């Protein structure tokens, strides 16, 4: 389209032009060789500080990379310029991968919904992730992985991308139990429609804007409410409530991400029912009124695994203190991560 600039566009073009004029002194460096570029990349990482990313896998390279300066992906990968990629995250704690199979299953469900076929069968993906974690020598942190339609061109359709790509990275981090409560707000950023909310794809702009909105208002994060007025989820976490009748209630997962941690919590929480501390554990539609009137409230997600919420839209939840049942549920999840059954924790043999 030519000559379609509005007068205001022309004005902004003129301003840009003036800036270009003024910036003639600024010369963009042209790297004369790849070794000069590699040297430059190493400057960033060779500062003597501990490296936060001990290992990466790339199917484009066909192996594991230990040099953080080389942990790059191609700019013509359709995940980069079109958002055609899915991802997932599993926790590494005490040298064990927590819930890897649940995360891998969700990852492949997301890939199927995004019409991305994996370059490897599930067993190979799993083996790569375990070998990557072993090579990283990291015993505490996160393992993040992506499937993308792959590199090929800059068009919209991925039909010109010969093979899909698989990337994964190990990130060193402290994983600990949260004992302090946080403040949340109701998000004003529109939430994703069910197809996109239930697919863990890389288009997290609404999620990013939602957490930024919360931070701007002095809160930790936000809560999405769906079009029907029911509680949905947080920007990268699920949410759970304990009623004054001692019922643990989580919103249905049909319009939000099916959280692996929330699902595990639903399996573990009946122990508190057996002990007579909780009356019931269930999923349901939860209205804003019911949610705000709950006795206790919490975020649930892999990296937390559970975070008490004590204040919502400047009003206290229950008595405004961290709830006893919230911490009992947090202990259940934490014990499961630290010493739970082998079916949920995979021991990594470090080379
Ligand atoms: C939008 C969203 N909801 C919920 C979750 C929690 O899921 P999980 O417990 O598997 O980390 C996540 C994190 O993956 C998320 O991104």
UniProtKB/TrEMBL annotation:
Q: Which cofactor does it need?
A: pyridoxal 5'-phosphate
| Gene Ontology MF terms in the entry | catalytic activity
Q: Which organism is it from?
A: Vitis vinifera (Grape)
- Coiled-coil residues are none
List the protein's name. D-amino-acid transaminase, chloroplastic
Keyword entries, A-Z = Pyridoxal phosphate
Which InterPro entries does the UniProt record give?
Answer: Aminotrans_IV, Aminotransferase-like, BCAT-like_C, BCAT-like_N, Class-IV_PLP-Dep_Aminotrnsfr
Q: Which family does the record claim for this protein?
A: Belongs to the class-IV pyridoxal-phosphate-dependent aminotransferase family.
Query: What GO biological process terms are annotated to this protein in UniProt?
Result: amino acid biosynthetic process; carboxylic acid biosynthetic process; carboxylic acid metabolic process
